Amino acid sequence: MSKVLIVEDEESIADIEKDYLELSGFEVKICNDGTSGLAEALTGKYDILILDIMLPGVDGYEICRRVREKQNIPIIMVSAKKEDIDKIRGLGMGADDYMTKPFSTSELVARVKAHLAAYQRLVNTPENDVLEIRGLRIDKTARRVFVNGEEKQFTTKEFDLLTFLAEHPNHVYTRDELFREIWGMDSIGDIATVTVHIKKIREKIEADTSKPQYIETIWGVGYRFRA
Ligand code: CA
Predict the structure, then answer these.
(1) Number of domains within the chain
(2) Alpha-carbon separation of residue 123 from 47, 73, 120, 195, 215 (angstroms)
């Protein structure tokens, strides 16, 4: 269950926001002043922050700034004064959204949901899927290849062929098998295409193409990627 922190000194407003958010399945905590709001926000227990600007103790600007130093959770700032909202925009203080009071609770709930969904997508983005073999680095997600830190340009098929071999180290594949694997059964071409591509890949990744360290030729059979 997502946890929402509301920092709002007008208790009736805070209570209404809390009721609607709880009805939508959120767990909600209210702080009615800036000092306790800042302390609570910095505990890191919350998924989203709804922050009033004019508060006793520490104001909403300061809370936003301090939270941003530590966390990337969504922050929705609210104020009765349109000038405050304009000020936040102008300062670019890292709030994700701004709402002018009074606003409808259904709109608040919709925005909370939208920001949480966007944040979840951000934090759940997996790390790039990378293969590292000695000085060779294949970033499968970005489809980029680096040799000793230097990027090399690969065509689609060269990349697919290299990646396939690198993912199946020490396995000997015939050119026929590689052609079917990378180009597919129905492709037009012949197995000489594989030879040409292996040659081009070697020129990019091997220090000495006459003594390949990655893709070895197994004479009379095919190719093997050395783990
Ligand atoms: Ca206030």
Answers:
(1) 2
(2) 12, 10, 5, 42, 37
Q: How far is the CA of 9 from the centre of ligand 1 (A)?
A: 5
Place of tokens 């062929």: 161
Instruction: Report how far ligand 1's centroid is from the alpha carbon of 53 (Å).
Output: 6
| Containing structural domain, residue 22 | 3-123
Instruction: State the distance from the centre of ligand 1 to the C-alpha of 29, rounded, in angstroms.
Output: 17
Give the sign of the dihedral formed by CA 182, CA 184, CA 189, CA 192. Answer: positive
Query: In sequence order, which residues have a C-beta less than 8 Å from that of residue 124 and are 6 or more positions away?
Result: none
Q: How far is the CA of 8 from the centre of ligand 1 (A)?
A: 6
Same domain, yes or no: 169 and 189:
yes
Q: Six-digit token pair at 117?
A: 């969904």
**pLDDT tens, 24-52?**
999 999 999 999 999 999 998 999 999 99
Question: Is 224 a residue whose pLDDT tops 90?
Answer: yes
CA of 93 to the centre of ligand 1 (A): 18
Give the type of residue at 45. K
Query: Do β-strands 150-152 and 75-79 pair in parallel, antiparallel, or remain unpaired?
Result: unpaired
Cα distances (angstroms) measured from residue 99 to each of 45, 60, 80, 82:
23, 13, 9, 9
